[in-house]
Amino acid sequence: MNYEIKLTHGEDNLFVSSNSHYEIADTVVIKTEKYKVMGRIVRKVSPELLSDGYIVSQANALDFELAEKVAQDSDAAKITVKRLVQDHSLDMKVIEVKYTLDYKRLYISFTAEHRVDFRALLKDLASSFKTRIELRQIGSRDVAKTFGGIGPCGRPLCCSEFMGEFPNVSIKMAKNQVLSLNQSKLNGLCGRLMCCLSYEDDFYRQARKKFPDFGDTIKTVDGQARVIGLNILSNTVKARLDNQIQDYDVSEIEVV
Description:
Blueprint (H helix, E strand, L loop, with lengths): L1 E6 L6 E4 L9 E6 L3 E10 L7 E6 L2 H27 L5 E7 L5 E7 L7 H11 L2 E6 L2 H8 L10 H4 L9 H6 L6 H4 L14 H8 L8 E4 L2 E9 L4 E6 L2 E6 L4 E2 L1
Parallel strand pairs: 2-5, 7-8
Antiparallel strand pairs: 1-2, 1-4, 3-4, 3-5, 6-7, 9-10, 9-13, 10-11, 11-12
InterPro entries: PSP1-like, PSP1_C
Pfam families: PSP1
Protein name: Signal peptidase
């Protein structure tokens, strides 16, 4: 059986195999060729997907105790990383520093306006921590994924809860759903278009095909009218007829 795993740091989700059965949201210990980490099961996946590793066991009290120690050591390491970045006068902001459970790797994510030459920094980091260092420049969406938060819907951010890769999102998806094109309402905490705009885009693109466009003149049972609004979920069109505004079922109208 294969599972998709959400890691406790900002890395991409893992796909792992197991001979045992686990429930969604179980916290498990995972072993890959490179390291040992702890993560949370977000869903079962097809066995055809390539496995990144395997589940060692469900996390127990000792594992959580170790994870707490790793978190404390990671926080201490972050202070050192920030100091070394400052010593090298690099224009970069350290976002997250995280050891794996076996301390074989230290993940460091950062943001920067431009490409950063961190080769000299990397040597000092390797000398200071005596482990494999992975430096990764990330964007605003990855920052939101790392720290999490509450979205406009009132639920935890999708990217921090279950999402692996970020979907491609465009303003056209908002237009397909007849949403207000107010950026403050369409953007997530990361300042980019919300990922959830892509979830139902296929449905809205297909549904829009039977609807007229805004401003079209349509023939109704009451005469000709001009389209001023669409409600795809209720399958209705809002139209202005003389000085009146009326809703019509899309099956009752015809574009002139």
